[in-house]
From TrEMBL:
Organism: Solirubrobacter deserti
Name of the molecule in the record: NAD-dependent epimerase/dehydratase family protein
Annotated NAD-dependent epimerase/dehydratase domain residues: 4-229
UniProt xrefs under SUPFAM superfamilies: NAD(P)-binding Rossmann-fold domains
Superkingdom of source: Bacteria
One of the Pfam families matching this protein, by short name: Epimerase
Length: 345
């Protein structure tokens, strides 16, 4: 029976993973930590409002006898947070989480770190597919990439110092799904898919359900080391546009792209530097190692894009549906613990 701690419970991934673990009878206890309220409904996950201060996390880990820590906090889209806040969360926060897991008296025996393919970067001389043994061929080009490399390397250093702990790093390609809001999903939701003149980059998209599935798979199995998490199949951006039923519009100039995309901010469209580099060069990940561990992707890149296209068509109906979930501590405690609440036997 596992006792799991999820960091970043208020994030989309933290909440989705907690919901998945709640279905698993082999998970005895689930504790989620975050500075903000959970964003989805949870039944048996205990929420503690706390940041990544290592002393506080260590107290929780020891008090709850946590044996598995899953770190889902990593910011992989610089449009979602200021650079300083992203650095604090990605680098300082990761080091604090690792510090809370270490020590000779720690009950932690497994750490799963949700990382990103931004670790490899995007360059004109990249290999067709990055394997886990490869490092990026050039220094980080953006602050976000630099932070992700530093956080990822800190996890590898922790693994080397704590041989008794199974440490799994999952480097995910770009996620896509009906409930996932990223810079890529916003660009693909435009009337035409923008591109850079003279470039038609390779794309890999992993469905949001497969991201949750891969994290769950790593939590329930011993997978030491680094694993690329990307589905089968690669599409060029013009093919993605075609599957979405939209024109491909490579109108951005190959020089001065930053200035051209900066002008889009006036209409609410922000294209981070790491996304601009992907619009130019693209990227591919070799997924054979993760599949050899027993994990099976539910959708290919093509099928993920097709499902996203269907979700875009249904978006008006989805938006007119039920109100979003709102966490209220008093209500949650009543529903969980009150003897007046009838529960299924």
């Amino acid at each position: 029976m596992s006792r799991v701690l999820i960091t970043g419970l208020s994030s989309y991934w933290g909440g989705r993973l907690a919901q998945e673990l709640e279905k698993d009878e082999s998970v005895e206890a689930i504790v989620g930590v975050s500075t903000e309220d959970p964003s989805c409904q949870l039944e048996r996950t205990e929420f503690v409002r706390v940041g990544t201060h290592h002393a506080l996390l260590r107290r929780i880990v020891h008090a709850a006898e946590i044996d598995t820590v899953i770190d889902t906090r990593l910011i992989v889209d610089s449009a979602t947070a200021p650079a300083k806040a992203a650095h604090e969360q990605n680098v300082i926060g990761t080091m604090n989480v690792l510090a809370a897991c270490g020590g000779p008296d720690s009950p932690v025996r497994k750490v799963v770190f949700k990382s990103s393919a931004h670790y490899y970067g995007c360059e004109r001389d990249d290999p067709s597919f990055f394997t886990e043994q490869m490092r990026r061929p050039h220094p980080p080009r953006t602050r976000l990439e630099s932070d992700i490399v530093e956080a990822d390397d800190a996890v590898q250093d922790f693994a080397a110092r704590n041989r008794h702990v199974t440490v799994t790093t999952l480097r995910f390609c770009n996620g896509l799904g009906p409930d996932l809001h990223t810079s890529h999903s916003r660009l693909l939701s435009l009337p035409a898919v923008p591109g850079i003149l003279g470039f038609d980059p390779r794309c890999q998209f992993i469905h949001e359900d497969d991201i949750v599935g891969a994290l769950h798979h790593a939590a329930m199995n011993d997978l030491p080391g680094v694993y690329n998490a990307a589905p089968d199949g690669v599409l060029v951006l013009s093919e993605v546009a075609s599957l979405l039923g939209k024109p491909y519009a490579p109108l951005l100039p190959p020089w001065g792209t930053s200035l051209a995309t900066a002008a889009w901010s006036a209409v609410g469209i922000r294209v981070p530097e790491e996304v601009r580099r992907q619009l130019r060069y693209g990227r591919g990940l070799d997924n054979r190692k993760l599949k050899m561990s027993g994990f099976r992707f539910s959708l290919t890149t093509r099928e993920t894009v097709q499902e996203f296209a269907a979700a875009l068509r249904l978006a008006p109906l989805r938006e007119s549906g039920e109100a979003p979930y709102r966490y209220e501590r008093e209500v949650e405690e009543f529903l969980r613990w009150s003897p007046s609440v009838r529960r299924d036997e």
